[in-house]
Specification:
about 325 residues; alpha/beta; eleven-stranded mixed sheet; four-stranded parallel sheet; 15 strands; globular; binds threonylcarbamoyladenylate; binds magnesium ion
């Protein structure tokens, strides 16, 4: 597959919106950098983003919407967020807020955490696309993991040309750096990533501290954030025979496995991308105190299997504050 670069037009926007609704990936311009968009409520489409980017772990994604109302059922608002949104949206600012319990946004977008990063971009083409599709769109920068963020359609093509069908083109991204990411889930606003809106400007509205001032450990990778989701139950890996009081997360033909009080299968066909799409929601479903542990079948290490294993190993690692049941 080689991606087609389509200059923006009413027809191109309609095509892109239709493809997003069908669960496909579309690269599109924003004022910061080009994004790789997918329907944020579609687990399979979100898994396809991670597959295309080729990341060895699940890094949470930013949800893009056309207007603030769309966010009411996605995140839980607070006062600083309202003030920042009023001042800087639409624009290059991303706010991390608690997930709304009723949200339809895929748990894979949050990489299993109980937060969602949201932003309303100002680029006219991004806005028109978001209005046309009328769905929240998850979009990381449209580059392979480890590559530079793309600011032109050709950058996108060079990095992801073999992984996607359509690049909606509208010149060069005017800001040229990614959005500023601000965590508003704690007592104080914490700058997670410097970007399009300078910290000095943010400080005209709210008090912002940097990560080193926040005193938290291990914030280098969002995967290591203290708030990162780990099941309450202990997790046991590479299991083919589960115990009678364990919940069992399978992968592949069910006949290869025995035991387990309740079973969910990440992918009967043994498809790692399907497994990634189901991973966090199935872990949540099985994480109930009636069971002693979650047993997990072996997951192969190819494609998204790497990211799945990374996540599962962290969930299974010994925990400092584990409350013991005997
Ligand atoms: O300007 C931008 O933000 C571009 C355009 C396309 O909007 N997008 C972008 O996405 O740069 P990405 O995936 O390349 O970077 C998103 C950043 C990552 O550092 C990620 O860890 C952080 O936002 N992030 C996303 N959701 C988060 C969450 N729930 N909690 C903490 N950090 C989060
Ligand atoms: Mg990026």
């Amino acid at each position: 597959m080689t991606a087609t670069i389509i200059p923006v037009s009413a027809t191109a926007l309609a095509t892109a919106a239709t493809q997003l609704r069908e669960g496909k990936l579309i690269a599109f311009p924003t004022e910061t950098v080009y994004g790789l968009g997918a329907d944020a409520t579609n687990d399979r489409a979100v898994a396809a983003i991670y597959a295309a980017k080729g990341r060895p772990e699940f890094n949470p994604l930013i949800v893009h919407v056309a207007d603030e109302q769309q966010l009411d059922r996605i995140v839980i608002w607070n006062e600083p967020a309202r003030q920042l949104a009023a001042r800087f949206w639409p624009g290059p600012l991303t706010l991390v807020l608690p997930r709304h319990k009723d949200t339809k946004v895929s748990r894979l977008v949050s990489a299993g955490m109980d937060t969602v990063a949201v932003r309303i971009p100002s680029h006219p083409t991004a806005r028109k696309l978001l209005e046309a599709v009328a769905l929240p769109i998850a979009a990381p920068s449209a580059n392979k993991s480890g590559h530079l963020s793309p600011t032109t359609p050709l950058h996108v093509h060079a990095s992801l040309g073999h992984d996607i069908d359509l690049i909606l083109a509208d010149g060069k991204s005017p800001v040229g750096v990614e959005s500023t990411v601000l965590d508003l889930t704690g007592e104080q606003a914490v700058l997670l990533r410097p970007g399009g809106v300078p910290i000095e400007t943010l400080r005209q509205v709210v008090d912002v501290i940097t990560r080193d001032q926040s005193g938290s450990e291990g914030l280098k990778s969002p995967g290591l954030l203290p708030s990162h989701y780990a099941p309450h139950l202990p997790v046991r890996l590479n299991v083919t025979a589960a115990q009678a009081d364990e919940a069992f997360l399978l992968f592949g033909p069910p006949l290869s496995f025995s035991g387990g009080a309740e079973r969910l299968n990440l992918s009967e066909q043994g498809d790692v991308q399907e497994a990634a799409a189901n991973l966090f929601s199935y872990l949540h479903q099985l994480d109930r105190p009636v069971y002693k542990a979650i047993a997990v079948a072996p997951i192969p290490l190819h494609g998204l299997g790497l990211a799945i294993n990374d996540r599962l190993q962290r969930a299974a690692a010994p925990r400092v504050l584990l409350s013991h049941k005997n």
